[in-house]
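4.2 Preliminary Data

To establish feasibility before requesting continued support, the project team ran the inverse folding procedure on a target of 220 residues. The structure was first converted into the token representation described in Section 3, and no sequence information of any kind was made available to the design step. The complete token record follows.
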């Protein structure tokens, strides 16, 4: 009976077969990152700043009331921009825009909808970058990595069978490849006068990719 794999280590001169293996693990998220912003605009810069600070503080207090720890609320961007009016070929300063962006780490994805609703009610009028995550993503990645190695071995054995090549089933070289992270889901910009729509939880897909080199022999 033909033997398709051999456990003995191959010699350096053996011909080789390079295989790519991929493993995927799908898990329910336990963390969600939410980016919420407050945009204000006034003719006077101090009014724009004061209004923005008032609304932002109100949003933060609303988040704390939903049991979001203050250390899970982080300012990621703050900007002041002048605005201009164009009329009859002339440009004149018309006011100032202020934006303050907060990133909120929510440990319970089921709270996402309530976070948006409370934030909008207190003055938030921008949102972007909703991203579901796993607090212990590395554990899931290790599972995906093991599946990727198994997949590479199975592919190598299948090719060896198809070509009648006795294969050493322990790879002589194994490289971990980088796997792109999925792009975050971006909800529509919120209106200050509306409640946020319900947020449907998305599964987190963890993928690992390896490149394995197997040696084989032409002699059965």
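Position-by-position output of the design step:
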């Amino acid at each position: 009976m033909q033997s398709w794999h051999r456990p003995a280590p191959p010699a350096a001169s053996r011909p080789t077969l390079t295989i790519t293996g991929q493993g995927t693990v799908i898990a329910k998220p336990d963390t969600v990152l939410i980016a919420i912003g407050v945009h204000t605009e006034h003719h006077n810069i101090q009014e724009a700043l004061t209004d923005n600070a008032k609304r932002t503080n109100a949003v933060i207090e609303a988040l704390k009331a939903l049991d979001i720890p203050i250390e899970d609320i982080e300012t990621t961007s703050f900007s002041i921009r002048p605005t201009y009016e164009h009329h009859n070929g002339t440009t004149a300063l018309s006011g100032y825009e202020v934006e303050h962006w907060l990133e909120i780490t929510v440990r319970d994805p089921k709270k996402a909808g309530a976070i948006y609703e409370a934030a909008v009610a207190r003055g938030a009028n921008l949102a972007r970058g909703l991203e579901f995550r796993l607090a212990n993503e590395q554990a899931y990645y290790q599972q995906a990595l093991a599946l990727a190695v198994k997949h590479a071995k199975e592919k190598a054995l299948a090719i060896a069978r198809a070509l009648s090549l006795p294969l050493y089933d322990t790879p002589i070289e194994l490289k971990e490849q980088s796997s792109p992270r999925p792009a975050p889901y971006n909800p529509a910009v919120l209106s200050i006068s509306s409640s946020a729509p319900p947020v449907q939880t998305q599964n987190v897909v963890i993928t690992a990719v390896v490149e394995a080199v197997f040696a084989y022999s032409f002699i059965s």
